[in-house]
Amino acid sequence: MLYWLTLLSDGGDFFNLFRYITFRAGGAFMTALIFGFLFGKPLISVLRRTQGKGQPIRDDGPEGHFVKAGTPTMGGLLIVGALLTSTLLWARLDNPFVWLVLFVTMSFAVIGFADDYAKVSKQTTSGVSGKVRLLIGFIIAAIAGYWAAQYHPEELQYQLALPVFKDTLINLGFIFVPFAIIVIVGAANAVNLTDGLDGLAIMPVMIAAGTLGVIAYAVGRVDFTEYLDVHYVPGTGEILIFCAGLFGGGLGFLWYNAPPAAVFMGDTGSLALGGALGAIAVATKHELVLAIVGGLFVVEALSVIIQVLYFKRTGKRVFLMAPIHHHYEKKGWAEPQIVIRFWIISLILAMIGLATLKVR
After folding, report:
1. Residue 132 half-sphere exposure toward CB, CA atoms < 13 A
2. Per the domain annotation, does 8 fall within a domain?
3. CA distances from 359 to 107, 110, 349, 353 (A)
4. Which residues does Mg(2+) bind (predicted)?
5. Phi/psi of residue 159, nearest 5 degrees
């Protein structure tokens, strides 16, 4: 919205700053951060009053989690609110990729909110049916995949770009939309599975968002793409503003989610943020790089899949408990130890993901 202040500029005054994506990204970050600090405590107070007993704790979970009983959930509303406000304020609202990412984020936030509401109101760990959530998620992701393809350059439409092998494109054709569904829904649910310890999910999400924001900015500039020899996708640079808002909103939320958490993100936040990461990857043609940058989420999801399949086949478990962060809890690792080590892993993977921009 503030971009249109450039209409008041003669090219050499303060209003000219609003032309620059980097300036507006900084504004989005600060707006989201301030939003989080301003509305964090009031939101938590409202959630405590309305939710009563807070988020239900699984009976079969680690014993140390029972002390968290009564902690309110739906804290993702704080992140989503900060993200929406900062993006609408600082991004160019005539950019289709901005609206694509917002559409996916808000749609998955609604799914997550419905699930959280069902759990809290019924005081059960089972919310909205998993099949219903997946079906709605598939529809949203299908729309997003087709939407993205229509705004990709003609030579990139329905193509899969490979990191490192930058001259190689794989024509997915009609399979591209199902592929986009897997990326977006997979990312949403992987982040959801990771959100099991105080602060565990939000920092890796912020790291991944920051990394994808840099990639989006680079991919959206023809001079950068020529230097890096990556595919140019006009308009994706504006996604950096969304990512900056996510980073700022995430920091604001982490202030209250740091151990011991005063509020949980809930499915409202985890599904929304995971879906956002998937949508950014599809928009920027970096779907495979997301698997590297978000490698922690991939491992968390795989640990659940492996555990379920192996148990059905043999009646035995590979991990003491899945997702894998609970395995390390069962092995005696302290919660902060797991969280910080997983943060470090996320940062390392993000650096590897960024390196793919140059390596060929």
Report:
1. 9
2. no
3. 35, 39, 15, 10
4. 192, 267
5. -105, 150
Percent of the chain scored above 90 by pLDDT? 81
**Nearest to 137, CA basis, from 99, 211, 174, 192:** 192
As annotated, the binding site includes 192, 267
* Nearest Cα to Cα of residue 204 among 323, 66, 61: 323
- Judge whether 180 lies within some domain: yes
Residues annotated within the binding site for Mg(2+) are: 192, 267
Query: Based on the structure, what is the number of domains in the chain?
Result: 1
pLDDT band at 16 (very low <50, low <70, confident <90, very high): confident
> What single-letter amino acid sits at 265?
M
Q: Provide the residue range defining the domain that includes 39.
A: 17-355
Mean pLDDT of 84-100: 97
Q: According to DSSP H, which parts of the chain are helical?
A: 21-51, 76-90, 96-122, 130-151, 176-194, 202-219, 222-228, 239-257, 266-283, 287-293, 295-314, 324-330, 335-355
Q: Is residue 84 part of a domain?
A: yes
pLDDT digits (tens, 9 = 90+) for 143-169: 999 999 999 999 999 999 999 888 889
The CA distance from 31 to 33, in Å, is 6
Query: Structure tokens of 197?
Result: 């310890």
Instruction: Write down the pLDDT at residue 260.
Output: 87
Rounded distance between C-alpha atoms, residue 154 and residue 205, angstroms: 31
φ and ψ at residue 324, rounded to 5 degrees: -65, -25
Q: Is the pLDDT of residue 64 over 70?
A: no
pTM higher than 0.85, yes or no? yes
Chain centroid to CA 312: 31
Short-list 250, 198, 206, CA closest to 350? 206
Specify the DSSP element, H or E, that contains 198. none
**Euclidean distance between CA atoms 241 and 351, whole angstroms:** 20
Task: Count Cα atoms within 13 angstroms, Cβ side, for 12.
Answer: 0
* Domain contains 82: yes
The helix/strand/coil state of 256 is: helix
